[in-house]
Amino acid sequence: MATGMMLFALFFGAGNLIFPAALGQQAGQSLWPAVWGFLITGVGLPLLGVLALGLSRAQGLQDLASRVHPWFGVLFTVALYLTIGPLFALPRTGSVAFEIGLSHWVPQQGRKLWEIGCLALFFAAALWLALSPGKLVGRIGKVLTPLLLLAMALLIASTFVAPMGQPAAAQAAYQAQPFVKGFLAGYDTMDALASLVFGMLVLMSVHQAGIREPAQVMRATFAAGLVAALLLAVVYVCIARMGATSLAQLGLLDNGAKVLSGVAMHYYGAWGAVLLGVMVFLACVTTAVGLLAACAAYFNHLWPILNYRALVLLFALVSFAIASLGLGTILSAAVPVLVFLYPLTIVLIVLAMGQALLGWGAVVWRWAMGATVLSALLHALHSAKWLPAALADGLARYVPGQEAGMGWMVFAAAGLALGLLHWQATGRKPMQLA
Which residue windows are transmembrane per the record (predicted)? Predict the structure, then answer.
């Protein structure tokens, strides 16, 4: 239970608060199909990622990704750690903590200096907590997570006791394909990416508890993952519902941070801002701690000459510097990176599960991932507006789901089918695992 609550807190950053709130307002009466899509990428994939890492018998993400090719293993793992670490997700935790929890208390004159000071204090707190990774379960799972859940429960309970209104008609983006829109909105949480990282922290916690036998390790990992997944699902559904019912009182707002702030102020007045500030700080700092610890541990393993504590300090400083650029800059810069890495991560999880259950050979991994890399790269270039218009139009015309951002599934399925045929033709040779 403590490990599962730690995992929930590591996954649940402030982005996980603001994205379902915005989804609820936008989806309105199409809330439930949109929420189901969001739960698949925001809850189902992270759970599968944790389980895939346990089932695969891999020694970490790089070991798992190296089953495609050793160079792919290094490049993909470095890119993923930098994305969920100091380049995007870590700075976002500090920026969101300030924007939602503190910005309305700060005078407009000298606001940037206040922001920098608050970010410095935030990353200093995360740095202190991350310097002792062996104490993460005790500090997060047994202390910070219960406080976070209590703060969220107070706000969520109020929306059930005295609802603000009824959901309105869906906004344009959610009218045609609410499920697909919700599915893609789940990308923003970055939790499927983080699952392949946090999964190792779960395995470490299980081993520290004295559980070594593979079947018992898998049961303990599944139990902890299930605790985290259930908590995430309940919170996401409640926050999305909160957003959907807030439209009558608050009107349509341009981001989930404003939705949460408006709901908190509606129910608790000035004390609502305090409650929201506590909730956001706890959500952000627990995620920041886990990301700092995981990133430093990986790069220490990759280059042992780099000291773990020095790496934690370095990543905290880089995250602080990038967070100082502002939340809008971070969110817009992350989009092309996410639409590239997410398909690769999903396919890697599928391949790991297939390997464990069906014994797929190496050629299956290479065909499936090669096709997915091609499609994801084209989509990322299109998202960054670097893809020639003629090529973008051709893909939209001939690849099903391309315009909705789901065209990579066609490429991945074709690559997987070709890989299985190749594997069958070469005698179903099993993969040699270390």
Answer: 34-56, 68-89, 113-131, 143-162, 192-210, 222-248, 268-299, 311-334, 340-360, 367-384, 404-423
